[in-house]
Specification:
22% strand, alpha/beta, 39% helix, Rossmann fold, 14 strands
Length: 336
């Protein structure tokens, strides 16, 4: 075969591949239009241990140019709880989780931990939830509590099935985290440069906590935003890598580590299921086999009455009130 024919095939095959993918419905990479703005400044800060944390202060937040709410962050980077507790309160209830626990889309007095505090004024409730967190950050937060001797009576870990990919920092989550954060606000790209994202690496049945620098999180292949073929190939590459990661085993490892720390420090450990899926239900059953108490508090967040659509899919104040009601009902039998 002549060099001319080789050159012909080298040029023709990629073109045919691109055309075939377009016919099949594949397209170039197009990021989802998503924005979060807050004033007077950005409400999240980079963190070298947890990835990111809450910037102290009072902020007015707008999501996708339509959902407005107020947030207050304390000096120790927690979502403020406006309801007071008794000065003599000895019972401490700490909530761990992601943006659902934090209460993205609702005001300070409308999220789950605040509603629990309102109903239990003789207890002290703290909200450790942060947008983007997984179980890995919750585990690191629990470690810090113990080191600082801030030991609660009860830890409630709010679990969602999508935390599995966060714990393992899969390619899909790397892409969503980096692109999502950087597209949410023009200033975020510069702010997050000092962030390190924790994750658990599993290798031959052994688990270790590793960190990824922000700039190393995710990169698009050249021409992905122009060619369907490049987008398809990178997506397939990411999918293969994702499927090779023992995501569920990593989540179980973290739950076991948290369970052990709670036992050693006389902390009641409860895991709730906050996403209504077969995956979450099955995972809760595995937690129960491990001897961890669980509560399924999920509602169908695809239903509009439970979310903040059309602007955002996060749980609305109705969902938070249902979660609080279900936790309070189960906690009637919990001994402090």
């Amino acid at each position: 075969m002549t060099k001319t024919k080789w050159l012909y095939y080298i040029i023709l095959i990629p073109i045919c591949f691109e055309v075939a993918l377009l016919i099949l419905g594949y397209r170039k990479y197009t990021p989802v239009d998503y924005s979060i703005t807050s004033s007077p400044s950005y409400c999240l800060s980079p963190d070298a241990n947890l990835g990111f944390s809450l910037s102290p202060g009072i902020f007015e937040v707008t999501m996708n140019k339509g959902l407005n709410y107020s947030v207050t962050h304390t000096q120790d980077s927690l979502r403020s709880i406006p309801f007071s507790f008794s000065d003599s309160a000895e019972n401490k209830i700490y909530f761990l989780g992601c943006s659902y626990t934090y209460g993205m889309g609702v005001n300070d007095n409308e999220n789950l931990p605040a509603l629990i505090q309102k109903e239990l004024p003789n207890s002290k409730v703290k909200n450790f939830g942060v947008p983007g967190f997984g179980t890995i950050q919750s585990y690191l937060q629990l470690q810090k509590m113990i080191v600082e001797n801030d030991i609660p009576n009860i830890i409630i870990l709010n679990y969602a099935d999508f935390h599995d990919m966060r714990n393992a920092l899969t390619p899909f989550y790397r892409e969503n985290l980096k692109i999502g954060f950087e597209r949410s606000s023009a200033e975020v790209k510069e702010i997050m440069q000092s962030s390190r994202i924790p994750f658990v690496l599993e290798k031959n049945g052994e688990f270790s906590i590793e960190y990824c620098e922000w700039n190393d999180l995710y990169k698009h292949w050249p021409l992905r935003s122009y060619l369907a073929s490049v987008n398809y190939l990178q997506s397939q590459s990411d999918l293969r890598k994702d499927n090779a990661i023992a995501k569920k085993e990593i989540t179980f490892f973290l739950a076991q580590q948290m369970q052990q720390l709670c036992k050693e420090n006389n902390i009641e450990f409860i895991i709730t299921g906050i996403t209504k899926s077969e995956d979450t239900k099955a995972t809760l059953k595995e937690f129960e086999k491990m001897g961890i108490e669980t509560i399924d508090i999920a509602v169908d967040l695809n239903l509009k009455k439970y979310n903040n659509m059309p602007y955002d899919s996060h749980p609305n104040k109705l969902t938070h009130s249902i979660w609080a009601e279900r936790i309070l009902k189960r906690m009637e039998n919990v001994k402090f």
